Amino acid sequence: MIESDRTEERATRARRASRPRPGTRPPGAAPAAGSPAAGRVPRREAGSAALPAAEPLAALEHRHLLGMRGFGGEEIDLILDTAKAFAEVSTRPIKKVPTLRGKTIVNFFMEPSTRTRSSFEIAEKRLSADTLNFSPSSSSVVKGESLLDTARNLEAMAPDMIVIRHKAAGAPHFLARHCRSHIINAGDGAHEHPTQALLDAFTIREKKGRIRDLRVAIVGDLLHSRVLRSNIFLLNTMGADVVVCGPPTLIPAELARLGVAVTFRIDEAVEGADVIMMLRIQRERQQGGAFPSPREYYNLFGLTVERVRRARPDVIIMHPGPMNRGIEIDSAVADGPFSVILEQVTNGVAVRMAVLYLLAGGTLGELAG
Q: DSSP secondary structure string, 134-161?
């Protein structure tokens, strides 16, 4: 685990322990005059101590979104519930709300991106935020500027949030230590990609109505996948049964310690699955021959129509993109009736709107109002 992951997790636990739940009162405090609780006598069992009623979380307890490790189920539910409220905005004739008017967001993408960058930019514009886009070719990084100097220059412009994608694992955590802005990890090396995991969870919940106790099979290049790690942390937290599959050369040794089942046979992985998530073969990150040929990989680990039949009749097929058709997934499956791949893209905008809104200090109650 990256050291700043541990620091962020410890800080979050401390905030949870010291801060009362939204809607609860300190022990012995009287309810506010005119409130529904004023004058009401709480009911309790004879001989039992009065306990405050648990209420849903109203605001995020994390200051940054650096990864899914350390996020509790209540915070995840809050983000997904908020995303559901924002999904309606995309169906309007005028797809814009003034929620983040006056806020400045920097998109600092140091790796190529199509879906994630476009999704964040659309989310920011629909929230009426002011945006500034940085890329390697348009920044001083190509002139030798360090990440720290770049961060300090960005901080000098007083942005409210920085969305960063970087090839180095831990780059968002580095910015979080040196910047006052809220930091959102849009993918750091092979470490994590939290907003992808959140949009995957949102898609699963919308299609299945729940996440708990679902069998989720994740198949592909597990060694280089940041999507895998974020999904494992989130799905384990939400009570899913996760099984992962790939060639032995593309499976990290530590996966079994993360609470997932590991298999080298795709037929075994997809058997009875409620969700099948295929991962891209990241040939640009591979240092050597992880498998003999694309044809052999497809024969042993590609998702075909025949293999989909082993899953549950109402299975959904997911892929974070971009897809390598004919290598990790058959076109008949990617474009078939069980595929929700394009719905993932649509849901990504709503989820990122929710993340931006909540990190800016918004609450689900304010949004509903």
A: E-GGGSGGGGT--HHHHHHHHHHT--SE
